[in-house]
Design a protein that fits this description.
The complex is a heterodimer of chains A (660) and B (162). Chain A has 660 residues and is α+β, with helices and mostly antiparallel strands. In chain A, the strands form 2 sheets. In chain A, strands 3, 4, 5, 6, 7 and 8 form a 6-stranded antiparallel beta sheet that branches. Chain A has a 4-stranded antiparallel beta sheet with strand order 2-11-10-9. Chain A contains 21 helices and 11 strands. In chain A, a hairpin with a 5-residue loop joins β10 and β11. Chain B has a 5-stranded mixed barrel with strand order 2-4-5-7-6. Classes of the chains: A alpha+beta (660), B alpha+beta (162). Chains A and B meet through α3, α12, β1, α13 and β2 of A and α1, β1 and α3 of B.
């Protein structure tokens, strides 16, 4: 019954989405308020039904109803409850259901908090959302029904892929989807603006919070995925330039560009056409990511199913939406009015530079990701494009971008003074040079690149701080006055500083991890010791343990450094009987931002076990950086000028608009 | 500056950045791309020693030997040819004889493939796609290789398991 109810709810959601696709637009054409208002009710009802469908699927997983194929193939009665819940989206059908549920959530949010939008714009936006939703409901219902039953229900399930049985599955996919799907809002706004043929600075003000929200989630989702891969795969790597990772990086790069260009549009009414194009491209890249990951074109742990029908269907969705929106863009964009003028050296100019580098970097990732696929189709040659390619292309493009980051906020709108900006960045420059000298002296004869990267990172961080210092006139007026000024600064200024500093923080982590990572791989027997980067590790012994749905071999290591005893490390190797798979659970010892990383290999016949030990200096900065960026985004989002849905949005927002 | 000049500056800048990016891409394409071969294709193409490529096939049953210091040697077979492989390090969790594997490295002077990365499938029923395609092409595909549960979360590699 539950499965049928869930299926039915999904069909009803499709019906609602189809109505929402047509009626509001017809209403907007005729100026019929009632028809336009209908979009809101259908959007909310859609959320209700998709939500119900999702909850019902969760209920099936939690109660281990193996008469449903999806549950049978991805669950096991002995699986811990948390993985029963997260296993709902640890498979193709469920993850697509999560995708549409989040889409419906965003649609409902626009309906609920979009009271300050012009009525016809909101009607158009919700209609476009419904087009996307209808396509994906159809996809799920026709090719990936999560509620399909088995005629002969088995007694036990096949269990979830053990790699996915981790807390990371609870966080990474929902976060990433909130980001991916969140960009559908800016896409819908862009298409709505093109349909209406009208766009202004207010449009950017409405779009920016949604973009920012999606960007925050995508940032956190990518960072979380990276950390998950780092500790789960047992290789200690945190980014592999795998096509699936690139699929999430591309919308992030385009989305970051979009955030900045929307800023120009909001403040200066310029770059309109470009901003519209970026909105379309960002969501197109999200769709492309969904296609790459879900179609089975790529083999990866994310590619749950390789059913050609699904691949073709998603490809069709991809072509219709990307092709359609770009055609509409080509048709309508020339009619959009040109915006304000600005000199090349200005805040706008800096943001254009930011966009230029971000989109170019995005394009190189695009080429590296899709070139192997294209080549295989055209010539049949199978190639792989790995880290070296991206290091050689993406790296050099990011260096000038990072150099320019501190200058941006220092330049005035419309016409900036580069010399004055440089003067204000003197302190940051000196800090960078000091960092360069110190790391250089410290690692004399070591790699050249790392000190330079660290100096660049310090420049970015110090530049962000200088901006705050400038704005609060720190050290030039009494401290108490500066503090008062700091409190008075708009939150978005703080947000900018945090986000830019986060970039530098991540870069320090990346440079240190890549350069000074020490590694020790050997077979160890009990009572043997290994020393890595000043740490002494002694294998005390191996024990067997029985977990809920696996058996594991745990190795106890005692760790000490300079005679100081540190907490023991317990890496393990789990073997999951149902799937006949084993996973490696690495043990991590965190000291400051550095980590000692220990993972196990195979046991040898003579009682030894292969171990991998890494010391990764400042590795945690790689993820603290994105967290800082997301925090900066959150601060900007809470800026009152941007607030999405304050309780009394309509009047408050209108007053603000009038005031500005 | 007039509007036109400003626009030209901007377009010029954009083109310059794009040109640099294109140059970077072409340059990187030349050096950092790795082709995939099966043992037969490797024999046919006579890949010179030292050129990196990805070798895919099945681990020949009975060929796996573990030496000291985590040295391993095994043979990769595709039905018509086999190629000896050596590797130093820890093999992936699901590396097994008789099953699909992809190794990255280069041939040495003696014709042995020295792998620096070994990628195995990450699911009990999954076969790396390149390997499956190559086997199918040569007619060595057995149906049960691909007989995986509808959604065996596929993983070709530990390294790329993402």
């Amino acid at each position: 019954m539950i499965a049928e109810a869930g299926h039915y709810a999904l069909v009803l959601a499709l019906g609602l989405a189809l109505i929402q696709s047509v009626v509001p637009i017809a209403g907007a054409r005729r100026g019929d308020v009632a028809l336009m208002e209908m979009a809101c009710s259908t959007a909310l009802a859609q959320l209700l039904f998709v939500g119900a469908s999702f909850v019902l699927l969760t209920a099936l997983h939690v109660t281990s109803d193996f008469s449903v194929i999806n549950v049978f193939e991805n669950s096991h009665s002995a699986k811990p409850l948390i993985y029963k819940v997260t296993g709902v989206w640890g498979n193709h059908e469920g993850s697509m259901l999560l995708w549409v549920a989040i889409l419906a959530l965003f649609g409902a949010l626009v309906a609920a908090f979009g009271n300050n939008l012009p009525m016809s714009l909101r009607a158009h936006v919700l209609a476009v959302q419904a087009w996307i939703a209808s396509a994906f409901y159809l996809f799920i219902l026709l090719t990936s029904n999560p509620f399909a039953r088995i005629a002969q229900p088995p007694i036990e399930g096949r269990d979830l892929n053990p790699i996915l049985q981790d807390i990371g599955l609870a966080v990474h996919p929902p976060m990433l989807y909130l980001g991916y799907v969140g960009f559908s809002i800016s896409f819908s706004f862009a298409v709505a603006a093109l349909l209406e043929g009208r766009i202004d600075a207010a449009w950017a003000r409405w779009v920016r919070p949604w973009t920012l929200m999606a960007w925050i989630f995508l940032t956190l989702g990518i960072a979380m995925g990276s950390y998950w891969a780092y500790y789960e795969l047992g290789w200690g790597g945190w980014w592999f330039w795998d096509p699936v990772e690139n699929a999430s990086l591309m919308p992030w790069l385009a989305g970051t560009a979009l955030l900045h260009s929307a800023l120009v549009m909001e403040k200066r009414n310029a770059l309109k056409v470009w901003t519209i194009l970026l909105s379309i491209l960002t969501f197109s890249l999200s769709l492309l990511g969904t296609f790459l990951v879900r179609s089975g074109v790529l083999t990866s742990v994310h590619a749950f199913a390789t059913d050609p029908a699904r691949g073709v269907f998603i490809l069709l969705i991809l072509c219709v939406f990307i092709g359609g929106s770009l055609s509409l863009f080509a048709l309508r964009a020339p009619q959009l009015k040109q915006g304000g003028l600005f000199a090349p050296i200005s805040r706008e100019g800096a943001l254009v530079l930011n966009n230029l580098f971000l989109t170019t970097a995005c394009a190189t990732v695009f080429v590296g990701t899709l070139y192997p696929l294209g080549l295989e189709v055209l010539t049949g040659d199978k190639i792989s494009v790995g880290a070296p390619f991206f290091n050689l292309t993406f790296g050099p493009l990011f260096v000038p971008l990072l150099l320019a980051v501190p200058f941006g906020p220092m330049l005035a709108w419309k016409r900036g003074d580069l010399l004055a900006a440089a003067q204000r960045l003197t302190a940051a420059g000196i800090a960078a040079l000091v960092a360069l000298a110190v790391t250089w002296a410290w690692t004399r004869g070591g790699p050249v690149l790392a000190p330079l990267a660290i100096a660049l990172a310090v420049f970015v961080i110090a530049g962000a701080l200088s901006d705050l210092a400038e704005r609060t006139a720190l050290f030039r007026i009494p401290l108490s006055l500066s503090l008062r000024r700091a409190r008075g600064l708009p939150r978005s200024a703080w947000g900018t500083a945090f986000a830019h500093a986060g970039l530098g923080v991540a870069l320090i982590g990346i440079a240190c991890e890549a350069t000074w990572n020490s590694e020790y791989i050997a077979t160890m027997k009990p009572d043997q010791t290994a020393s890595v980067a000043g740490y002494e590790l002694k294998l005390e012994g191996l024990t067997q343990r029985q977990g809920p749905n696996y058996r594991e071999t745990v190795a106890q290591f005692s760790v000490s450094r300079d005679g100081e005893k540190l907490p023991a490390m317990l890496p393990s190797k789990r073997s999951f009987t149902t799937r006949g798979m084993s996973t490696t659970e690495a043990a991590l010892l965190t000291r400051g931002a550095s980590q000692l990383y220990l993972s196990l290999g195979d046991a040898s016949a003579d009682g030894g076990i292969a171990v991998r030990i890494y010391h990764k200096p400042l590795v945690l900065l790689i993820w603290w950086g994105p967290v800082l960026m997301a925090f900066g985004g959150l601060l900007s989002l809470s800026d009152r000028r941007l607030r999405v849905g304050a309780p009394k949005p309509a009047r408050a927002a209108r007053r603000l608009q009038a005031a500005e | 500056m007039t509007r036109k000049q400003r626009r030209l500056t901007m377009i010029g800048g954009a083109l310059a950045v794009l040109a640099v990016a294109a140059a970077l891409v072409l340059n990187a394409m030349r050096d950092s791309i790795v082709f995939f071969s099966t043992p037969s294709m490797a024999a046919e193409k006579q890949i010179p020693a030292g050129r990196r490529f990805r070798l895919g096939g099945l681990v020949q049953p009975g060929s796996l030997q573990r030496g000291d210091n985590l040295m391993v040697s095994f043979s990769v077979a595709d039905g018509s040819n086999t190629l000896p492989v050596t590797y130093k390090g820890i093999l992936p969790d699901l590396f097994r004889e008789g099953q699909g594997v992809v190794a990255e490295g280069a041939l040495d002077a003696s014709g042995t493939f020295r792998a620096d990365t070994v990628l195995a499938k990450h699911d009990e029923t999954y076969m790396p796609k390149e390997v499956a395609d190559a086997l199918k092409k040569q007619g060595h595909w057995k149906d049960d290789y691909g007989n995986k549960p509808m959604q065996g979360a596929a993983k070709s590699s530990q390294e790329t398991a993402k």
